[in-house]
Design brief:
Blueprint: E1 11-16, H1 37-49, E2 60-65, E3 105-109, H2 120-126, E4 131-137, H3 139-153, E5 164-173, H4 182-193, E6 199-201, H5 203-210
Parallel strand pairs: 1-2, 1-4, 2-3, 4-5, 5-6
Helix pairs in contact: 1-5, 3-4
Length: 212
């Protein structure tokens, strides 16, 4: 049974790159993993947001990728063309199910890690976060890189001892790569993080541990 998670200001939900560009049907890969990703992100957000009015609300931080490469579909200037799945919309915009609410922090990055060249590490340390719950896109790139660095930097560690980094496996998603299907890419990358860099939980395990 997973250890309880305090649904208070010491627990943070960190959502990585849940952006419109990932709707493109072919650019990132021939298929995407985890069809329950959207529902699970929504369930986690709902649980955290229900406690917004409490005396010690749990923070939600959104990471947004803004590529410096003008040819990238995550460059701020990119607008979806016909057939993209988001015609007329900016690729960097947050997807509707993960759009930040007023008061939720947004951290912008230019590379794979949410910690390099950003205020994310300082933000987590200043808030005294002891448990970091992570979801987002893509499992094998920015989610993996940010998860590894969270553990390496010890961003949740402090006078209370060692903190916790939790990757929510069914709240992340990725795409097929080469001859490997999307679910295989996802599963292998999650397993490479297990125990060494993060605790690996499902959405339902997180919700039960929070009593949500």
């Amino acid at each position: 049974m997973p250890a309880p998670i305090a649904l208070d200001s010491t627990t943070c939900l960190l959502l990585i790159d849940i952006q419109t560009s990932f709707l493109h049907p072919t650019h990132w890969g021939s298929a995407r993993s985890n069809p329950s990703h959207e529902a699970n992100i929504s369930a986690l957000l709902s649980a955290f947001r229900r406690s917004r009015s409490s005396a010690s609300p749990p923070p939600v931080i959104h990471v947004q990728h803004l590529s410096p490469n003008p040819s990238s579909k995550l460059h701020p200037s990119y607008i979806g063309s016909p057939g993209s799945g988001f015609e007329g919309q900016h690729g960097v915009d947050f997807l509707p199910y993960a759009r930040p609410l007023e008061g939720e922090a947004v951290v912008t990055k230019a590379g794979n890690s949410g910690f390099i060249g950003t205020e994310l590490e300082a933000m987590i340390r200043q808030r005294g976060i002891r448990t970091l719950v992570i979801g987002g896109i893509t499992t094998d790139q920015c989610v993996s890189t940010t998860t590894r660095m969270a553990e390496n930097l010890g961003v949740c560690d402090g006078g209370w001892g060692k903190g916790r980094v939790i990757l929510v496996t069914d709240a992340t998603a990725t795409f097929a790569k080469g001859t490997f299907d999307a679910e295989t890419v996802h599963a292998v990358n999650v397993e490479s993080l297990r125990d060494e860099f993060a605790e690996i939980w499902t959405t339902q395990e997180v919700l039960r541990a929070m009593g949500a």
